[in-house]
Amino acid sequence: MSKYYVTTPIYYVNDKPHIGHAYTTIAADVLARYYRQKLGPENVWFLTGTDEHGVKIAQAAEKFEKKPQEYADDISASFQFAWDQLNISNNDFIRTTEKRHEENVEFFVSKLKEAIGPDGQPVIYKGNYEGLYCYGCEAYKTESDLVDGKCLDHPNIEPAYLKEENWFFRLSVFTDHLKEIIERGDFIVAPESRKNEVLRFIEDGLDDIAISRANVDWGVKVPFDKDQTVYVWVDALINYVSALGYKGNDDKFKTFWPANVQLLAKDILKFHAIIWPAMLLANGLELPQVCFAHGYFTIDGQKMSKTIGNVIDPNQLVDEFGTDAARYLILAQYPFGHDGDIKADDFVIKYNADLANGIGNLVSRVLGMTEKYFEGQVPKMKYSADFDVKAFWAQLDRGYSELKLYENLKAIINLVSWCDNYIDQTKPWELSKSDNDKLQQVLYNLIELIRHLALAIYPYLPETAEKINIKLNINETINSIKFDKSREIGGMKSGVKIEKGEGLFARK
Fold it and tell me: In CA terms, which of 48, 149, 369, 497 is 20 to 30 Å from 113?
């Protein structure tokens, strides 16, 4: 692998960011930071952004007595602020109201107009849509999609009945091709449960879909039919190529497309695993390598809801715990890809256990003992502990390639626990009175493992990792250290003066 392109969905600006948005975005940031370490920052591109068109946005703007663009500007800014607060390192932030995106949408849709499908027919055609539409998720619905006549995700919004002339995309003719490439693994839908879900949906039969709307002002006009507006989901999906300069075949597009990983929540899986790849196939573009859909959050067993008042604002977590801790607490809840429940009251418990009493306490203990017994100088020894550093890194590498971000965090905390047990077993405070050579060996082993700990936590806790680096008197930033060289055993130089300094995480 020579390049890495990771995307989040672009978030709909009908409301401000919540913990679910942050979950996807932090996960993408972790991957981007890891691959920048591995491949070099110039070979990684990380995209996020906001989806700003559609009837729902126009209605929300009207409710707040604002113009749609003004409303979109405000909400988009709140997402950018939240990502700054969480130290998200995206290379670009795409907005669907930007001219660069709208021009690419027009170009992409025009190419679809010229495209011929597997059946030898044009892939888009003019037709009549008559049926249901949920404005909550801006999606066409069939009766089978509804429960008691209501959308599962928006039970308080009555589906609208639409009857209008639209442009349609022949999704049906891509049924066999999509099934084949997903089963063969040419286009990976993960985790396995989501792959099976998509295959079942395909096997049930794919219908052609409307890709334009009549009588919708807030959106991108269909370039060959100005009475029609590009369907908001088609508009949104194109962001992944528009941000790279697809229309002009820019160097960035040639370098980074296709995406290596597209992260999303499972509620928008159909759009990303069926409609998006079919559109790309129609226009002769390569498909993303992996479409990964994670599960839903519930809070204390209940779905997030403004009415209940259990929506968690990521900014509040940053205010209470700090940036790195908020990142950790959001990602460390349950395996990535699963549904899971967050116990809001457990944030403090996990913060103290894993960060304050875990990583923070370990670093303070080891560097404090080094100052006490050796005036802060790293002992002149070679690494000899039983902890298998090579196996540790192999486990993390495998975890990143398989998107096991939660399991990687557990491996890191296991390293901390191993070090704590090693201290308890070797009792440096007793060795200081009886065996200076062994004391030097024990502390060198621990300092070397803390050096590896800093490298390992960097994608998750970048500020903390750099603070540890400074304490260890390593003058290079983690991103500037060569990836393979940094992982070598014994990389901590003897004789270096370290400094315990302030604690990393204050107990709550």
Answer: 48
Name the β-bridge partners of 209.
169
Report d(CA 409, CA 324) in Å as an integer: 13
Reading the block at residue 327, the tokens are 């990142």
CATH of the domain at 482: 1.10.730.10
Summarize the confidence of residues 5-25 as an average pLDDT: 95
Whether the link from the prior residue into 9 is cis, omega within 30° of 0, is no
Residue 413 included in any domain: yes
3-state helix/strand/coil string of 242-265: HCCCCCCCCHHHHHHCCCCEEEEE
Cα(272)–Cα(182) distance, integer angstroms: 13
Element (H, E) at 327: helix 323-331
Instruction: Please give the full DSSP string across 17-80, using - where no structure is assigned.
Output: --HHHHHHHHHHHHHHHHHHHHH-GGGEEEEEEEE--SHHHHHHHHHTT--HHHHHHHHHHHHH
Question: Rounded distance, CA 258 to CA 286, Å?
Answer: 6
- Range(s) of the domain holding residue 406: 346-486
What 3-state class would DSSP assign to 72?
Answer: helix
Residue 453 falls inside a structural domain: yes
Domain presence at residue 458: yes
Instruction: Give the contacts of 452 (CB within 8 A, at least 6 positions apart).
Output: 389, 392, 393, 415, 487
**Tokens 């996807």 sit at which residue?**
24
* Tokens matching residue 347: 């944030």
Instruction: For residue 175, tell me if it sits in a domain.
Output: no
Contacts of 453 (CB under 8 A, 6+ apart): 359, 362, 363, 412, 415, 416, 419, 468
Tokens representing 507 are 């107990």
Catalytic residues: 18, 21, 134, 137, 151, 154, 303, 306
Which 8-state DSSP code applies to residue 122? B
Provide the whole-model pTM.
0.94
Contact (Cβ atoms closer than 8 angstroms) between residue 297 and residue 23? yes
